[in-house]
Amino acid sequence: MIPQHGVSARSSVAPYTITTSTKTVKSGTPMEVVITGKSSSDIMRGMLMQARYGDEIVGTFTLNPNERFAQLIDCGAPGNAVTHKKHDEADHKQTLAVKWTPPAGFNGDIKFRATIVLDGKTFWVGVESAPIKVVS
């Protein structure tokens, strides 16, 4: 989850938060996940997000069909990660909302983990949400 931009990730606290529509979700039930810049100048030019159970990527994402900024990718399974598309500057985001669905029958605590890019030389790796409890 480290961009190949020729510079190191920022070690400061990221000016972005990852929030969720719930703190507990039933396996197989979609929930909303939102990445937001803390101020209007904290836009995203790029991002990569996964749901993690420890180091394991779990669940699948769903996007609005009209989404111009983000796309689903395959990090070992179709749709288990979401990243940015090549896009125009007008499509940069301060807030991105997506749906995530935990696997059927899954039990455990997950966290959403993201790399978020402000610009080519400014990005943060390992931005995390609070833990989410998935129950079957």
UniProtKB/TrEMBL annotation:
CDD domains given in the database record: Reeler
One cellular component (GO) term of this entry: membrane
Superkingdom of the organism of origin: Eukaryota
Keyword entries, A-Z: Antibiotic, Antimicrobial, Disulfide bond, Immunity, Innate immunity, Secreted, Signal
Reelin domain boundaries: 1-136
GO biological process: defense response to bacterium; defense response to protozoan; innate immune response
Name the UniProt record assigns to this protein: Reelin domain-containing protein
Subcellular localization: Secreted
Entries under InterPro entries matching the protein: Ferric-chelate_Red/DefProt, Reeler_dom, Reeler_sf
Predominant localisation class: secreted
Pfam family, one: Reeler
Signal sequence region: none
Family in the record: Belongs to the insect defense protein family.
